[in-house]
Amino acid sequence: MRICIDFDHVLVETSKAILKTYNDEFNDDIKYNKDHQWDLTGLIPDKHRKWVLDSFDSNEQIFRNMKPIKDSVEILKELSKEHRLVIVTQHSGIGMYYKEKVIKELFPFCDIAFISGADKSVTCGDIFIDDRPECLNSVKGNYKYIWCFGVYDWNKNWDGIRVNSWKEVKHKIDEIMRRNL
Question: How far apart are CA 103 and CA 69, in angstroms?
Fold first, then answer.
């Protein structure tokens, strides 16, 4: 199967990396709060949020601070033995280089597809996994299975299939494979 997977908040803890970079840069000690919006409202103070969002495309430290979501590396490595895995992510500027470097370091067994914007309808495959409803909605009709990863403030109203961990993803894929035998 061809499985397309988003990067930020699905494979790595992007908000935590951004917050760590922010705290280092502004000598602050804000604690991570899961209840924030995708644009970091509720996590980064409003007066600095624009700086943080603007620096996401060029601040190498954000990418150095990225840590994989629990079990993502091990499970994707295992899945790559039987499936084609494509990380579909958006980015621009020098940040694309930094993001690609992180992807190749953590997930060398995955292909990478960079796109612009939340419209990921240029992709197709069997399974699509993302955390943003806009992205999930943009690929309807292009995939047999569309799964929302995690529960975040920005996706809590998603009414389709949701997966909350990489172990759950693996279990669902194993179920599909058993049914197809």
Answer: 13
pTM > 0.85: yes
Strand ranges across the sheet with 127-130 = 111-115, 84-90, 2-5, 127-130, 145-149, 161-163
Q: Are 37 and 153 in contact (CB under 8 A)?
A: yes
Q: Which two tokens stand for residue 7?
A: 């990067």
Helix H, strand E, coil C: the string for 9-58 is CCCECHHHHHHHHHHHHHCCCCCCCCCCCCCCCCCCCHHHHHHHHHHCCC
Residue 53's identity, in one-letter code, is L
Query: What are the pLDDT digits (tens) for 14-73?
Result: 999 999 999 999 999 999 988 899 889 999 999 998 888 888 878 899 999 999 999 999
Give the whole-angstrom CA distance, residue 60 versus residue 98. Answer: 6
Nearest by Cα to 66 from 110, 109, 20:
20
